[in-house]
C-alpha cells in the first residue's frame, strides 16, 4: 500500500483511506441533495448521516419513506441492507475484541464498508499490537467517515438551489445500480440479485412494499443455495479441497 | 412529504439497529465463530435487497407515473453494465447520468 514506509499507524490509516474520498464525497453530496428534495431540513439530513452513517441504507430508507411505505417496512428494508455489518463486526473481533468497551463501541460506530475493508486487509498482512491496530483503524476513519458528514451538509445546503425537474428522480436508482455492479462477484451473488429483482417485480402487487421484503429474502436464500451447490461441485471435482 | 414522526422513528431506529449490528460480535458475542449457515445468508443480504429495491423503480419509474420508459430502462442497463465490468462506481454513475441526459434530450 501507499503507506508502507510510514511509521505512525494512525497516519498509515489516513493515507490508506484517502483514495476513498473520491467515492464518499459524491455519495454524501447526493444524499444531501436527494434528502432535501424529499423534504428534509438541513438538520434532518445531517442527523441522518451522523446517526446512521451507512450510505446504501440511508438511500433505501429515504426512497421508501418518499414512497409512503409504512415505517416498519422502511426500517426493516434499510436494516436488511446493513445486515452485512454483523459480518464485519465478527471479522474485527479477533483483532480489536480486547479493547476497552468504549473503544469497541467507537470502532463499531465507525465500522463501514471501507474502514472494514482496509482494517481487514492491514491486520492480515502486518503484525501489529492492539493499540496500533486501533490507531490504524481510527486513521482510516478520518478521511472516510468525517467527510461523510461534511459532504452531506454541503449537499443538503446546495440541494435547495437545484430545480426538481432535472431527472433527479432517477439519481437514486442510478446510484444503487452502480453499487450493485461490483457486488456481483460470484455466480451466487448474481443469482441472489437476479432472483431478488424478479421476485420483487412479481410480488410488487403486495401491499406495504412487502414485495421488496419477499424479493430480498428469496434472493438471499437463492444466493446461499447456489453457494452450497458450487461448493459441492468443487468438492466433487477436487476432493482435496473438500471441507 | 415525509412526516416528522416517521422520519425520526426511522433515523433513530435505523441508527440504533445499525449500531447493534456493528457491535453485536465486537462488543457482545466476542471471539466465537458464527455458524456457517448464518454467514452464508448474511453474505447475500446486500446483493439481494438492493436489486429488489431498485427493480420496480427501474421498470415503473415515478417520473412517468409507472409507465415503462425506454430512456430509464437503457440508463439502468448502461449503469449496471459499466459497474459490473469496471467495478468503478463513479464511472458507472457517470455513464448512467450521461445516458439519461442524452435520452431525455433526444426523446424528450
From TrEMBL, chain A:
Main location: membrane
Record keywords, A-Z: Cell membrane, Membrane, Transmembrane, Transmembrane helix, Transport
UniProt keyword Transport present: yes
Transmembrane segments: 17-34, 46-65, 134-151, 212-230
Domain of life, source organism: Bacteria
GO biological process: L-valine transmembrane transport
Topology in membrane: Multi-pass membrane protein
A GO cellular component entry from the record: plasma membrane
Cell membrane in keyword set: yes
InterPro entries: Brnchd-chn_aa_trnsp_permease
Protein family: Belongs to the AzlC family.
Protein name as it appears in the record: Branched-chain amino acid transporter AzlC
Location in or out of the cell: Cell membrane
TrEMBL record, chain B:
Transmembrane intervals: 6-29, 41-61, 81-107
UniProt keyword list: Membrane, Transmembrane, Transmembrane helix
Domain of life: Bacteria
InterPro entries the UniProt entry points to: Brnchd-chn_aa_trnsp_AzlD
Protein name per Swiss-Prot or TrEMBL: Membrane protein
Taxonomic lineage: Bacteria, Pseudomonadati, Pseudomonadota, Alphaproteobacteria, Rhodobacterales
Amino acid at each position: 500500500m501507499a503507506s508502507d514506509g510510514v511509521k505512525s499507524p494512525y497516519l498509515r490509516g489516513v493515507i490508506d483511506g484517502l483514495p476513498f474520498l473520491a467515492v464518499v464525497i459524491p455519495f454524501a453530496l447526493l444524499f444531501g441533495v436527494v434528502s432535501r428534495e424529499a423534504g428534509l431540513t438541513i438538520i434532518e439530513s445531517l442527523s441522518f448521516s451522523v446517526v446512521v452513517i451507512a450510505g446504501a441504507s440511508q438511500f433505501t430508507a429515504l426512497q421508501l419513506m418518499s414512497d409512503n411505505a409504512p415505517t416498519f417496512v422502511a426500517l426493516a428494508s434499510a436494516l436488511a441492507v446493513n445486515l452485512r455489518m454483523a459480518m464485519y463486526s465478527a471479522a474485527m473481533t479477533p483483532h480489536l475484541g480486547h479493547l476497552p468497551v468504549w473503544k469497541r463501541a467507537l470502532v463499531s460506530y465507525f465500522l463501514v464498508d471501507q474502514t472494514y475493508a482496509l482494517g481487514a486487509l492491514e491486520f492480515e498482512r502486518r503484525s501489529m499490537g492492539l493499540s496500533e491496530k486501533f490507531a490504524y483503524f481510527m486513521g482510516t476513519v478520518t478521511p472516510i467517515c468525517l467527510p461523510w458528514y461534511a459532504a452531506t451538509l454541503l449537499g443538503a445546503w446546495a440541494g435547495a438551489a437545484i430545480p426538481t425537474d432535472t431527472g433527479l428522480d432517477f439519481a437514486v436508482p442510478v446510484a444503487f445500480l452502480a453499487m450493485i455492479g461490483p457486488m456481483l462477484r460470484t455466480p451466487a451473488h448474481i443469482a441472489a440479485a437476479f432472483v431478488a429483482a424478479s421476485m420483487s417485480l412479481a410480488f410488487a402487487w403486495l401491499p406495504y412494499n412487502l414485495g421488496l421484503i419477499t424479493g430480498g429474502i428469496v434472493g438471499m436464500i437463492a444466493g446461499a443455495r447456489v453457494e452450497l451447490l458450487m461448493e459441492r461441485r468443487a468438492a466433487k471435482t477436487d476432493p482435496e479441497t473438500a471441507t | 412529504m415525509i412526516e416528522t414522526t416517521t422520519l425520526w422513528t426511522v433515523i433513530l431506529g435505523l441508527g440504533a439497529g445499525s449500531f447493534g449490528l456493528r457491535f453485536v460480535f465486537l462488543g457482545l458475542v466476542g471471539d466465537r465463530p458464527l455458524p456457517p449457515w448464518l454467514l452464508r445468508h448474511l453474505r447475500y443480504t446486500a446483493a439481494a435487497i438492493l436489486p429488489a429495491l431498485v427493480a420496480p423503480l427501474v421498470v415503473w419509474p415515478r417520473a412517468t407515473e409507472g409507465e415503462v420508459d425506454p430512456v430509464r430502462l437503457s440508463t439502468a442497463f448502461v449503469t449496471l453494465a459499466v459497474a459490473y465490468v469496471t467495478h468503478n462506481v463513479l464511472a458507472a454513475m457517470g455513464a448512467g447520468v450521461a445516458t439519461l441526459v442524452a435520452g431525455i434530450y433526444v426523446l424528450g
